[in-house]
Amino acid sequence: MPELPEVQTIVNDLRKEISGEKITGFWTDWKKSIKGCQLAEFKAKLNGEKIIAIERIGKNILLRLTHQKILLVHLRMTGKLLFTRRVPNITSKTDRHTHSILLLNKNKQLEFNDIRKFGTLEIISTDTLAEKMQKIGINPLSPAFTLKKLNLSLLSKKNKAIKTLLMNQDVISGIGNIYASEILFAAKIAPQRSIGSLTAEEIAELFKNIKTILKKAVKLRGTSFSDYRDTKNKKGGFQEILKVYGKTGKKCPACGTIIEKITMGQRSTFYCPRCQK
DNA sequence: AGTTGTGTTGAAGA
DNA sequence: ATCTTCAACACAAC
Fold first, then answer.
1. CB atoms closer than 10 angstroms to residue A236
2. CA-CA distance, A71 to A102, in Å (whole number)?
C-alpha cells in the first residue's frame, strides 16, 4: 500500500500539521512495533523533544527531533498515521487498529494505526542515519535520478526480470507492487522481460514513465486500493486511473485485450499481453 | 466455515 | 554470495 506517492503525501501533510510541535507522551498497546530499544527507553527518548523537520527516504518517514534524534516510521503494508485531536485526560484513539499514539502539545496527536501490525517505529540518532539508510536506493523523483543512472543500475542485473528490479528498494527506492505494474504498462514493457533483453528505447521509455507515473500519483495523493489513507483518513485519487493493477479480466484501456494476472516472486502482477511486449 | 490472497521487508533456507 | 521462500498479522473475498 504505502509506496512513494502515499508516503510523500503523508509527509507533506504532516509538515503542515505537526511541524514544531512538542512530544508530551507516548502510548502503545503493541510494543512489538518498537524497534531498537525497550518501551520505557523509547518513551524517555521521545518525551519533551520537538519535531523540527519531516522527511521521506524511500518508504521511510523521518520525524527529525531535537537533540539529534530521528523517529523513523515504516508503514509496511497497512500502516497509517492519523492526525487527530485528543480529548483531554483520556487515551482517545479514533479506531480499534490504532496501536500507538504520539501525544503532542495543543491536544494534537498522531495515531499509528496498523491493521496487520507489520509497521515499525524506531528512534535513531542523526549519526547513524546514513548507516541505516545506506542500502536504500536512489529517489526516483530526485534530479540525480537520470537515464544514465538507471542504465548504470541495470548493468549488473541483466538476468533479472524488470519488475523485480523496479521493486528492489536497494536500487530505486519507493516503487512497490502497484506502481511497478502501472509503470510497466505505461512503458509498454512486459513485467517478466529480462533486463538484458530491453532495448535502449525501452529503457528510455521506462525512465520517462517512472517519473511521470510517480509524479502524477503524488499529485493525486496516492492510491487507495484498499487500506491506504492519508493523515486525515482520506483516500487518494490514483485508484480511479489505474490501468492494469487489480484489473484482471477487464479490458485494456488502450487496446481492449483482457488484462492478465501472473505471479512473480509471490506478488500479483498485472499486464496487457498485447500492449506490453 | 475453512482456505486464499493482500500493498512490505527481514530473516531463514537453498 | 545470491536468489527464493517464509513469517510477522488481520481481514475480506471466495
1. 20
2. 11
Between strands A108-114 and A23-28, the pairing is unpaired
CB atoms within 10 A of CB A89: 6
Between strands A120-125 and A51-57, the pairing is: unpaired
Name the nucleotide nearest A168; use CA and C1'.
Answer: B9
Statement: residue A89 has pLDDT above 80: no
What pTM, to 2 d.p., does this model score? 0.97
Which residue gives the smallest C-alpha to C1' distance to C7? A118
Give, to the nearest 10 degrees, the angle between helix A200-219 and helix A147-155: 120
pLDDT, tens digit (0-9, with 9 covering 90-100), for A28-63: 999 999 999 999 999 999 999 999 999 999 999 999
The grid coordinates listed for A30 are 503493541
